[in-house]
Amino acid sequence: MTKTSRGTFVTFEGGEGAGKSTQLGLLAARLKTHGIGVVETREPNGPIRNLLVQGDRNWAPLAETLLHFAARAEHLAETILPSLGEGSWVLCDRFADSTMAYQGYAQELGRPTVEKLYRMVAGRLKPDLTLVMDMPVGVGLDRSLRRHVNHETRYELMGRQFHETVRAAFLEIAAREPQRCVVIDANRPVETVHEAIWATVKERLKVG
Ligand SMILES: Nc1ncnc2c1ncn2[C@@H]1O[C@H](COP(=O)(O)OP(=O)(O)O)[C@@H](O)[C@H]1O
Ligand SMILES: [Mg+2]
Predict the structure, then answer these.
(1) Which atom of ligand 1 is nearest to the CA of 193?
(2) DSSP string of 86-144?
(3) Residues lining ligand 2 (ion), CB within 5 A?
(4) What Rg value do the Cα atoms of the chain yield, rounded?
């Protein structure tokens, strides 16, 4: 594994309602009990987020992808890179694999365009570990649409087939980069999933 900087960059990826945010919080709390400085963040973030996760606008796939990368450029400059530079662990709820899965695969923009934009925006930075939370599409969508932040439903409402493509895309992304990505069976109780993630983090990354 190539360390990107002094800190440790961990991303949580996967479909709607897979438990990314829940598990990110649990991992952050566990790391803190080991005296580790943790920054919890998410994508898309900043003022561009609402354009992407609310409403039902049908952006051209390239425009939508550029919005994700614009938000990401800002996020890298303002939060991720400075935090890694200070030696923190940065836990990020979604990152570039989501753009690849949603825009590259499901919105059919294609892998090369997303890869090119990634290199422009993130250069050689890669997460040290990516946890791909996998679960059946129906279970995840049901959970996602039941939770409280239910005005952020733009992607949830894109339909079952879209989300099946997203799920398959995440599994393909993980299979292409096994040194970075670990698939977690997310269709289990919260504590069981957390213990699986903790075991993975201890095995793959230096804790404490
Ligand atoms: N392992 C689990 N079993 C049952 N419900 C869960 C589990 N993990 C999360 N949830 C619930 O499912 C919903 C979606 O979880 P969340 O962490 O927000 O998913 P995501 O961030 O991947 O969309 C929340 O209401 C959460 O409390
Ligand atoms: Mg979430």
Answers:
(1) 1
(2) TT-EEEEES-HHHHIIIIIIIT---HHHHHHHHHHHHTT---SEEEEEE--HHHHHHHH
(3) 20-21
(4) 16
* pTM > 0.85: yes
pLDDT at 1: 40
Nearest CA to ligand 1 atom 27: 22
Q: Which residues line ligand 1 (CB under 6 A)?
A: 14, 16-22, 143-144, 147, 189-190, 193
Tell me the mean pLDDT per 10 residues along the chain, length 208: 72 97 98 97 96 95 98 98 97 98 98 98 98 97 80 92 98 98 98 98 89
CATH of domain 8-204: 3.40.50.300
Q: How far apart are CA 170 and CA 181, in angstroms?
A: 10
pLDDT at position 208: 60
Angstrom distances, CA of residue 59 to CA of 32, 103, 107, 166: 40, 11, 10, 18
Do 115 and 34 meet the contact criterion of CB atoms below 8 Å apart? no
